[in-house]
């Protein structure tokens, strides 16, 4: 029987607040208790769904005791992994992790790519991107990397142009061409699908799109290409715990043929296996 625990930002706030008090001591510690269950914080869709498939179908046979904790924001999983509240997390890309570690002094490292969630532009007002009217408002994620991905997506589809070389660190101030005089509303990534009724369009992360009953492969006006995309989502742990046998076993299961088939069958191109 599946035992999934949902955690909100408020519930885990204490773990985040104690990060500053425990960071110095935790740097001196090595490894984690490999005798208990492996606890993984994950976004509900598709990360926790994929983990729960592993838990329900593969983990017991492989001798892995897996506990899945659903988290709805992009901060708590890393702070909880850093302070030891959880053993690992599964929700992010390398660019996001690099930026998070730099800004927060955390020591999280990847432990194996699993899947890609293409970022997409969605609208309840128009059916094609070129139907956006002059002065239209587009909601975009406000965290550094996903905002840059959103702007790069719009630039790749000739909706705007942005400065050369800014990469995924692009912000609205880097826009050099905006023929439709679009306005940008910066929101927490989780809020972008909920804003669709109030804006003309929104760039939404794949996991939040699926969670809002959007089908990226069918509903997106424009969608990131999966080919050559550097934004695979991966299992992550605190530095020093990469060799935990439970982590290695989970990484192996997450890249199994069974998980690839589950991803292909369940998400029909909206989530793509990255292995």
From TrEMBL:
Keywords: Lipoprotein, Membrane, Palmitate, Signal. InterPro entries: Lipoprotein_NlpA. Residues 1-23 form the signal peptide. It is a lipid-anchor. It holds the Pfam family Lipoprotein_9. It is found in: Membrane. Belongs to the nlpA lipoprotein family. This is Lipoprotein.
């Amino acid at each position: 029987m599946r035992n999934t625990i949902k955690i909100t930002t408020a519930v885990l706030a204490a773990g985040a607040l104690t990060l500053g008090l425990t960071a110095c001591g935790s740097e001196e510690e090595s490894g984690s208790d490999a005798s208990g269950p492996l606890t993984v914080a994950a976004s509900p869709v598709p990360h926790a769904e994929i983990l729960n498939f592993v838990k329900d179908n593969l983990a017991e046979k492989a001798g892995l005791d897996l506990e899945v904790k659903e988290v709805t924001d992009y901060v708590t999983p890393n702070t909880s992994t850093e302070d030891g509240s959880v053993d690992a997390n599964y929700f992010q890309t390398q660019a996001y992790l690099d930026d998070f570690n730099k800004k927060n002094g955390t020591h999280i490292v990847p432990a194996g790519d699993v899947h890609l969630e293409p970022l997409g532009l969605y609208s309840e007002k128009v059916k094609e991107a070129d139907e956006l009217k002059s002065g239209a408002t587009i909601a975009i994620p406000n965290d550094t990397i996903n905002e840059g991905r959103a702007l790069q997506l719009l630039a790749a589809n000739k909706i705007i142009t942005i400065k050369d070389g800014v990469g995924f660190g692009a912000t609205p101030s880097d826009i050099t061409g905006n023929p439709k005089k679009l306005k940008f509303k910066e929101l927490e990534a989780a809020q972008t699908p909920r804003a669709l009724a109030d804006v003309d369009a929104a760039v939404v992360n794949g996991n939040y799109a699926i969670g809002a009953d959007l089908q990226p492969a069918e509903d997106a006006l424009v969608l990131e290409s999966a080919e050559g995309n550097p934004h695979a989502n991966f299992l992550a742990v605190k530095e020093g715990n990469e060799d935990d046998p439970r982590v290695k076993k989970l990484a192996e299961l997450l890249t199994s043929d069974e998980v690839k088939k589950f991803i292909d069958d369940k998400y029909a191109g909206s989530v793509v296996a990255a292995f």
